[in-house]
Amino acid sequence: MVSRAERTWFADWWWTVDRLLLFALAALMLAGIIFSLAASPPVAARLGLDAFHFVNRHIMYLLPAIVVLLGVSFLSPRAIRRLALVVFIVSLAMTAATLFFGAEVKGARRWIVLAGVNIQPSEFVKPAFVILVSWLFAESSRKTDVPANTMAVALLVSVVGVLVLQPDFGQTLLVTLVFSALFFMTGMRFVWVIVLAGVGAVGGFIAYSTIPHVARRIKRFLDPSSGDTFQVDAAVESFISGGWFGRGPGEGTVKRILPDSHADFVFAVAAEEFGIVVCLAVVALFAFIVLRSMRRAQRSEDPFARFAVTGLALLFGTQAAINMAVNLALIPAKGMTLPFISYGGSSMISLAYGIGMLLALSREQPRADMIAVPSDIGLAERTA
């Protein structure tokens, strides 16, 4: 056990980091391995691979993700801002490069190959973007003469512009929602609410009118008889089939016919084999992580930390909510992973980077009024 009396870098980290958040994240990662064992073997068999191919790769991605998460959680706020700027510039440039060099998959160019590894750079844009706009909003609250809000909107336009060109409307929606929430925290006037809502509505209409696969997804959601809804229907059936307590590990049948059972629809596989009770426990874990982070943000005296922790928590929680809503056919299908549970290397490592920053910025800091200055102490003693 690490003693509070120790003055080492690890002891300082251990006694200031939110350990309950760490344990909740560890539980999510463990659930991800268990669900991968349940969902991925049939997918591997259909592709002619070893039964545990995706399980092994899931764990292989998880190990560097843990290293990134813990390593970033040691950083200072200044180091986090500097690193986020570098990550944002590099990942945004790589995201733009996918438009020219990326392979087209299902009508979109989101992946680029570097040194034989497939990378989805837009995943890394999101957490870095949250840090940068949080920095700008914090500066805006301190210095009214700095056009920080205008610069934040310019960053949003640059990110959304590249994502729409891919096209990736799921990530666009996620980034815009988080930005809007942070913008609302700055105390924006109601006119900006109307402007943002109007721009979003116009953008959605243009996407619906000009991009065929977006129109097809929305039409299928509104009218299932208008197209193929096989995956969503199978996912919903898995919740019905599993009931409250599931059919038992390895007894699920939906995973044998779902192409993305190990990725986008792993939550549905968990529902069939482990039951709705386990799914509710997973939802509770996500809710705990988000609400606990929000509470830490509320208690922070640093505006930057308050904005950043809130934004990163919203990014994490909204992504999870979108994935689970798709599995339950509550919203049109989006290609978005369930954090730390779905298969996907880029997603897992970028989530680890974001959560690592959240842990670093939510670490307990000594209050200014509790820090005793030696000269003041001596003066107080002499006065007494």
TrEMBL record:
Q: Where in the cell is it found?
A: Cell membrane
Q: Which segment of the chain is annotated as a signal peptide?
A: none
One BP annotation, GO: regulation of cell shape
Q: What class of enzyme is it?
A: transferase
EC nos: 2.4.99.28
One GO molecular-function entry: lipid-linked peptidoglycan transporter activity
User: TM segments?
Assistant: 20-39, 59-76, 83-103, 169-185, 190-211, 265-291, 303-328, 340-361
What the entry lists under Pfam families is as follows:
FTSW_RODA_SPOVE (PF01098)
Keywords, alphabetical = Cell cycle, Cell division, Cell membrane, Cell shape, Cell wall biogenesis/degradation, Glycosyltransferase, Membrane, Peptidoglycan synthesis, Transferase, Transmembrane, Transmembrane helix
Q: In which pathway does it act?
A: Cell wall biogenesis; peptidoglycan biosynthesis
Bilayer topology term = Multi-pass membrane protein
Q: Which InterPro entries match?
A: FtsW, FtsW/RodA
Q: Name one GO cellular component term.
A: plasma membrane
Q: Which reaction does it catalyse?
A: [GlcNAc-(1->4)-Mur2Ac(oyl-L-Ala-gamma-D-Glu-L-Lys-D-Ala-D-Ala)](n)-di-trans,octa-cis-undecaprenyl diphosphate + beta-D-GlcNAc-(1->4)-Mur2Ac(oyl-L-Ala-gamma-D-Glu-L-Lys-D-Ala-D-Ala)-di-trans,octa-cis-undecaprenyl diphosphate = [GlcNAc-(1->4)-Mur2Ac(oyl-L-Ala-gamma-D-Glu-L-Lys-D-Ala-D-Ala)](n+1)-di-trans,octa-cis-undecaprenyl diphosphate + di-trans,octa-cis-undecaprenyl diphosphate + H(+)
Indicate the family of this protein: Belongs to the SEDS family. FtsW subfamily.
Instruction: From the Swiss-Prot or TrEMBL record, give the protein name.
Output: Probable peptidoglycan glycosyltransferase FtsW
Encoding gene (name): ftsW
